[in-house]
Amino acid sequence: MTLEHLVANYGSFGLFVGASLEGEGIAMLGGTMSHQHLIGVWPAIIALALGSFVADQCSSCLGMAGAIALSFVRFRGAQRVGV
Q: What is the pLDDT of residue 74?
């Protein structure tokens, strides 16, 4: 199953998932679909914006959690100074 197939079959939800996974190519596909009146303009815009936002927030949280875990591993054996 390709992303184009997902978007064609599931509409706004497919745009949301596609924007979360791939990004700009799906945005172009969503614009083409809305131009051909297969999906509304505003549902496409909202689905693409939310999909991109959710993907960015998830990757940011994963990166922050990894940085915190790495700092605990790195400084676990360090001695406290001035406490």
A: 58
Angle between helices 24-35 and 12-21 (to 10 degrees): 160
User: 3-class SS at 78?
Assistant: coil
How many other C-beta atoms are found inside a 10 Å radius of the C-beta of residue 41? 13
Please write the tens of the pLDDT for every residue from 1-40: 666 676 778 888 888 988 888 878 888 888 888 888 888 8
Where do we find the tokens 């079959």? 9
Q: How many CB atoms lie within 10 A of CB 18?
A: 24
| Strand segments (E) across the chain | none
Q: How far is CA 42 from the centre of its chain?
A: 19
Q: Torsion angle of alpha carbons 34, 40, 43, 45, nearest 10°?
A: 30
Residue from 19, 77, 81 nearest 46 by CA? 19
